[in-house]
Amino acid sequence: MCVRRCLVGLTFCTCYLASYLTNKYVLSVLKFTYPTLFQGWQTLIGGLLLHVSWKLGWAEINSSSRSDVSTWLPASVLYVGIIYAGSRALSKLAIPVFLTLHNVAEVIICGHQKCFRKEKTSPAKICSALFLLAAAGCLPFNDSQFDPDGYFWAVIHLFCVGAYKILQKSWKPNALSDIDQQYLNYMFSVVLLAVASHPTGDLFSVPDFPFLYFYRFHGSCCASGILGFFLMLSTVKLKSLMAPGQCAAWIFFAKVETETPENFIAWIQEKRKPYRVWVLCLKPWNPTNKCNELQ
């Protein structure tokens, strides 16, 4: 059982890292900044894979009453807000910055439990929430690549995440399973994002995307949808096999692991910058030498 839990945890961490890096590549490197289409594609792939898994008996989706489905609709709207605002924010912010802001959603949940539900909250949890809030508050003053638009969408994203988790925790435990909830989220997101692609202008702007017919764009989009699906499945499995504390520890490890590559690359680039300048400037000048273009 312990080995099985470790395998599920490692699978979750791998999917978490790969999913974020793939999305970041599509959004920031290829600059496919059409969130209604990108997120619509991801949810379509996720919904199709989940439906196929259900038909093959690999996943269990229960038939839900209309009242359960209609009651869950506000959460599905928040889910669309999460993925749309998250996509807009991630396209402009570094992964460590985005995840730091994303963590502030826990402050909203903690505040709701303390102020509205009058639940007992341990001092350690309150201190943790305050530290998260302080870390996020210091970010704009220490971010060398500060982007107001990115922070704006990140704030919307974290509020949607907080509200979604509050609704999810207040939901009747036997009404809809986690898989049922995600299946409804996928279906609602595909429809809403497809409709929204017209008024947002994404549908008419995408033909101008320079990498539209490149294999690396197609491969990255397919990978993002598949990885998102496996991340969802591994998350559900993680929650079902482990206690909340163990699950939180694996999520924390996955976030640290995901932040590390970008931080390491930034550190290497900063360390190598003086060396690169000296090497380029010591070369004999010729028309193809770009030393004279250095600022």
UniProtKB/TrEMBL annotation:
Protein name, as recorded: Transmembrane protein 241
UniProt membrane topology term: Multi-pass membrane protein
Domain of life, per lineage: Eukaryota
GO cellular component, one term: membrane
Alphabetical list of InterPro entries matching this protein: TPT_transporter
Keywords, alphabetical: Membrane, Transmembrane, Transmembrane helix
Keyword Chloroplast: no
Main location: membrane
Gene: TMEM241
Segments traversing the membrane: 150-167, 183-201, 213-233
Cell compartment(s), UniProt: Membrane
Statement: the UniProt record of this protein carries the keyword Zinc: no
